[in-house]
Amino acid sequence: MATIDGKTIGHGMRFAIAVARFNHFITDRLLEGAQDALVRAGVAAADIDVVRTPGAFELPVVAKALAETKRYDAIICIGAVIRGATAHFEHVAGQCASGIQQVSISTGVPVLFGVLTTDTIEQAIERAGTKAGNKGGECALGAIELVDVLRQVRHLTAETSK
């Protein structure tokens, strides 16, 4: 029986971070958290590219273009969708999540969902570096771990095909 656990050691890994400008007062903090976590885990700053999108809805198409370059081990999508008085929240949050998942599955490149979906601005602020930690940093560590897990799984697949 084999157990595969990912490690959060990012030496030699390359990442793209796609970050939405909308709600930038939140997403800028999430981006800082993600970059800090990657560097602390051993990823070279030169191996982290940042691409800005207008909003969270546009993250999947940019993530797909980044994945198709085959330049990155993983892509981290960062955004903040805060509930308002209309149904717009559900449409943006749902389509963003679905699109990001589709990109990851269709390209085989891990694409992580670092998009806050909160009811209030206060909740978003808490998740961007105050009471609830920085979800951007947590997402970045998850990206490193997932890259490591997939490398191990793919190595097992290569060994069994010999």
What report would you give on this structure?
The protein is of the alpha/beta class and 162 residues long. Helices cover 49% and strands 18% of the residues. A four-stranded parallel sheet has the order 2-1-3-4, with helices on both faces. Strand 3 (74-82), helix 3 and strand 4 (111-118) form a beta-alpha-beta unit.
Summarize the structure in short:
The protein is an alpha/beta fold and 162 residues long. It is built from five helices and four strands.
Helix/strand order, N-terminal first: EHEHEHEHH
Helix/strand-derived category reads: alpha/beta
Count of DSSP-assigned helices: 5
List how many beta strands DSSP finds: 4
Task: Estimate the strand proportion.
Answer: 15-25%
Major sheet summary line: 4 strands, parallel
Regions with little confidence, pLDDT below 50 for 5+ residues: none
Overall pLDDT metric: 93
